Amino acid sequence: MTMQQTINPAANARATAEPAKRARIADDKDMLRAARDLTKDIAEAKASIYWTDMLLSAGLGYAALALAILTDSVPLAIAAGLASALLLYRALLFIHELSHIHRNALPGFRKAWNLLVGIPMLTPSFMYEGVHTLHHKRTQYGTIEDPEYLPLALMKPWSLPLFVLIALLAPPALVLRFGILVPLGAVFPPIRKLVWERVSALSINPDFRRRPPEGELKPRVFWQETLGMIWAWCLIGSIFAFGWKPILVALAVFSFTAVLNQLRTLVAHLWENDGEAMTVTAQYLDSVNVPPPGRIAEIWAPVGLRYHALHHLMPSMPYHSLPEAHRRLAAHLGAGSTFDGANHKGMFTLVARIARSTMRVSRDQSIK
Fold first, then answer.
1. Who's near 261: CB < 8 A, 6+ residues apart?
2. What's the CA gap between 265 and 196, in Å, rounded?
């Protein structure tokens, strides 16, 4: 696909550089130095926060899901299903933290999360571990080798709704992957290779091919896939034991969660890079912070993901420290700085910006 690189410049030149120039933005050494020096004392993950947040989110989410399944009241079922989707969405997004925290930082947390959230939602941690870190590599972000990058702002307008709506298929696709394709792959190696390369990573780049697992990830993949397969069989078997209602309600809740996450992904970056390697500052400005005073971002981008650009500056910073890190850097660097250039008002303004870019690209291509 040929992609034109045209967006309108706005007030902050650094934040709205044309995509052709964005990759060549020089690093802002003052910002990088401040990010390192001003946050050293808040860089440690606090186990009490992680465990409490994850357990409450998962526990309340499953309770709300049970209520949505068991109640005969349609309004109550809808309300409980919505609450379940939001709570389980928050619990699920701890997978992002698992891909960054040191393996010894939170003893037992990875295993507990997989047993309580990852396996039940058929999204175990191996689907992100060893994948998401490629998105943070200095020479791979925004390139064809980045599993989590698509130049959406430079694509056709219809690509945006398709990108979001395809997430509706994620829950049944995961049941198919674990319940059918995993056991088939154990018998037929070519199927196993295809499944691993193409549908074993939470990636959005259709050209990404996952390499075979190595080291300590290899045994984790085995037990997580085995448990995922057993759970998928239980879900399929529940239809015969309890009828269609429980699994259909659960799939509806998880589909809503998947769409919400896809919307968050849509506005996590500006998606204006055309494949060229970028500096750290350019990567920061192509990423998005949605800081306070708005509060709704904490719902659609929980567990620190409302500070996604800041996260790209400090990938190992625990999620609970990102608000304080943002306050310190904003106060130190000031309004109008490079740091300020990645701050945006909210989801709707970001979607509108990306949509306008796709329409400009489409119009320019039709003229040519």
1. 89, 92, 93, 167
2. 23
> Where on the phi/psi map is residue 360: left (φ > 0), alpha (ψ -120 to 50), or beta?
alpha
Contacts with 269 (C-beta within 8 Å, 6 or more apart), sequence order: 149, 286, 287, 288, 308
Neighbours of 161 (CB within 10 A): 10
CA 339 remoteness from chain centre: 22
What was the pLDDT predicted at 56? 98
Q: What is the mean pLDDT of residues 227-255?
A: 97
- For 304-333, write each residue's pLDDT tens digit: 999 999 999 999 999 999 999 999 999 999
- Among residues 34, 54, 196, the alpha carbon closest in space to that of 131 is found at 196
Can you tell me the distance from the alpha carbon of 22 to that of 15, in angstroms, rounded to the nearest whole number?
A: 9
CA 352/CA 289 separation, integer angstroms: 16
* Residues 326, 307 contacting (CB under 8 angstroms): yes
Average pLDDT of the chain is 91
In 10 A of CB 231, how many CB atoms?
Answer: 18
* pLDDT computed for residue 1 by the predictor: 31
Q: Please give the Cα distance from 219 to 223 (Å, whole number).
A: 7
Distant-in-sequence, close-in-space partners of 118: CB < 8 Å, separation ≥ 6: 95, 124, 125, 224
Phi, psi of 263 (to 5 degrees): -65, -45
pLDDT mean over 338-356: 95
How far, CA to CA in Å, does 359 sit from each of 127, 364, 368? 33, 9, 14
- Extract long-range pairs of 17-21: CB within 8 Å, 24+ residues apart: 17/285, 19/151, 19/153, 19/154, 19/272, 19/273, 19/274, 20/274
Q: What is the pLDDT of residues 87-124, one digit of tens each?
A: 999 999 999 999 998 878 899 999 999 999 999 999 99
Q: Which sign does the torsion angle of CA 39, 44, 46, 49 carry?
A: positive
pTM of structure: 0.91
Give me the mean pLDDT over the 202-210 stretch. Answer: 94
Judge residue 105's burial from the number of C-beta atoms within 10 Å of its C-beta, 0-12 exposed, 13-18 middle, 19 or more buried: middle
